[in-house]
Amino acid sequence: MMDTQLTIASMIKRTEQYFPKKEVISRTQNGVQLFTYKDTVGRMKRLGSALESLGVKKGDRVGTLAWNHHRHLEAYFAVPSMGAVLHTINFRLSKEHLIYIINHAENKILLIDEDLFPLIESIKDELKTVEAYVIMTDNERLPETSLQPVYSYEQLLDKADNTYEFTTKIDENDPAGICYTSGTTGKPKGVIYTHRGIYLHSMALGMTDTLALSEADVVLPVVPMFHVNAWGMPFAATWMGTTQVFPGPNMTPKIIAEMLEEYKVTFSAGVPTIWLGLLKELEEGTYNTSSLRALLCGGSAAPKGMIHMFESKYGIPFLHGYGMTETSPLVSVTRVKSYQSDLPVDERLELLSKQGLVVPGIEIKAVNENGEVKPDGKDMGELLIRGPWIADAYYKGDSNSDAFQNGWLHTGDVVTIDEEGIIKIVDRTKDLIKSGGEWISSVDLENALMAHESVFEAAVVSIPDPKWQERPVACIVLKDGAQHKVTKDEIMEYLRPQFAKWWLPDEVLFMDEIPKTSVGKFLKAKLREQVEKQLVI
Ligand code: AMP
Q1: In angstroms, what is the span from residue 323 Cα to ligand 1's centroid?
Q2: N or C: which terminus of the chain carries fewer CB neighbours within 10 A?
Q3: Are residues 418 and 453 in the same domain?
């Protein structure tokens, strides 16, 4: 067979050739704009030319701090197609982590939304490699800014060479993108996506038994474009000529509901917190969501009650997917097999609430101290994954040894696998809390707490939360003879300047001791039980 290269530039070539009339609908600060794919691919090429004129070369990292909109989509294709690497930056990270990842990825250029540039202004003196800032705005005039040198995205595109074509000198194994994920403690870790990985992952999104993305769909990615490439949807949808609707800055459940109705969206994707918000909005307002053929929920476990409401009350089929930053992300998706179609409601919901069946192209197994777990739905072990869109290292080798062993990615997720091959996540070995789709490091909070003069030891565990899925609770043992009785408020005041607001614990519980294993490690499962009992959860 021919060894043709699986590159991102070849994907947009197809879009340009066969779907020039199809559309990208984009909500920005100033309203909703509409672009055909002909316009869009033209703008992608001009962006490539503009970046080249700013000195971007093969292998350089170009960062984005942006919401979900058409300009971000343009960068998704232009940056890798000119041979550079797209670094989608999570602007919800703490300033310390933002500085770290921008410097660690050695970003040369940053493309920044107008409302997000004050954030970058506040850390600009710490950024060691950035040579230019490009502001993505609809407004003709750039805002006053201390960033230097600064350019307007639209003016750069206006001046760009409109005969520019992307290079053909890209190997499919070249890096196309980089995304950082939370480390258990300390620093985030970078995951590099190759052209080949993104291409094959996009193919997988189109398979009938996965997401079945097709030209006839109208997709609305709610999941941020800095979260594992909005789960790969913009790549797959552009390639297939699918209409894309981007919800833009500061979207609310109301905006999502309105856009679903107005643009007759057929497929949307987001974390459970988003769908819980949408459910409330659908209950309060009157919206026609009959165009939806499926909602994809991932990033955290989808609650059964929520799945049931969407399906039974609104007739919206629910897909539950599982993946990680390290896995591009799609690994598994819940699908009811043909011979399961008349399962009783309870069993069907139970099935949909699990993390599903591994998608074609990826292999999984689960292991524990006795070896590979039995596929009986009871035996538990850590989930291991391998396949052509699974990372095999962290960028610059950070913490590689724990996660990548003998050709398998060790996920830190503890699962059962049943007779049908369905994966169910039952626990997590990584010391992280996932709140509204974003990670909080319990270890970082514990370290900060233990540096408090009156704290002897501290452990942070997650409790279930109806809106955010998980929230942190701090459990504290005070030092003997601590000068005064420390209060919850005092602890919160102490933590406040050190962490992003949403990292702060919801509760602070004072205890006589924290349960430990025989080797002195915190026994978090036991502690969580105690906390849930104390808080009557
Ligand atoms: P991230 O790298 O931020 O995408 O997070 C990946 C992690 O999120 C996984 O290792 C799981 O712990 C968790 N996760 C992702 N999808 C699901 C899901 N459907 N159900 C439960 N946990 C999930």
Answers
A1: 6
A2: N
A3: no
At 265-300, the pLDDT tens digits run 999 999 999 999 999 999 999 999 999 999 999 999
* Arithmetic mean of pLDDT, 146-160: 97
Q: CB within 8 A of 123, min separation 6: which ones?
A: 95, 98, 99
State whether 384 and 528 are in the same domain: no
Residues 6+ apart with CB under 8 A from 349: 304, 307, 308
Domain count, the chain: 3
- With a threshold of 0.90, does the pTM exceed it? yes
Write down the residue that tokens 């992952």 correspond to. Answer: 201
How far, in Å, is the centroid of ligand 1 from the Cα of 91?
19
Percent pLDDT > 70 in the chain is 99
Token pair for residue 272? 């459970």
Q: If DSSP codes are grouped into helix, strand and coil, which group holds residue 254?
A: helix
Q: Are 174 and 380 in contact (CB under 8 A)?
A: no
For residue range 76-129, what is the model confidence (pLDDT) as tens digits? 999 999 999 999 999 999 899 999 999 999 999 999 999 999 999 999 999 999
Neighbours of 303 (CB within 10 A): 17
Does residue 308 form part of some domain? no
129-151 pLDDT per residue, tens? 999 999 999 999 998 999 999 99
Query: How high does pLDDT run on average in the chain?
Result: 95
Number of C-beta neighbours around residue 149 at 10 A:
9
Instruction: Tell me, yes or no, whether 481 lies in a domain.
Output: yes
One-letter identity of residue 307: I
Distance (Å, whole) CA 93 – CA 430 = 19
CA atoms within 13 A on the CB side of 85: 22
Q: Whose CA is nearest to atom 5 of ligand 1?
A: 324
Distance 412 CA to ligand 1 centre (A): 10
Mutate to test the pocket of ligand 1, among 355, 389, 429, 439 (most ligand atoms within 8 A of CB): 355
Query: What is the domain extent for residue 414?
Result: 362-428
In this structure, the answer to whether residues 189 and 53 fall within a common structural domain is yes
Reading the block at residue 204, the tokens are 């997988």
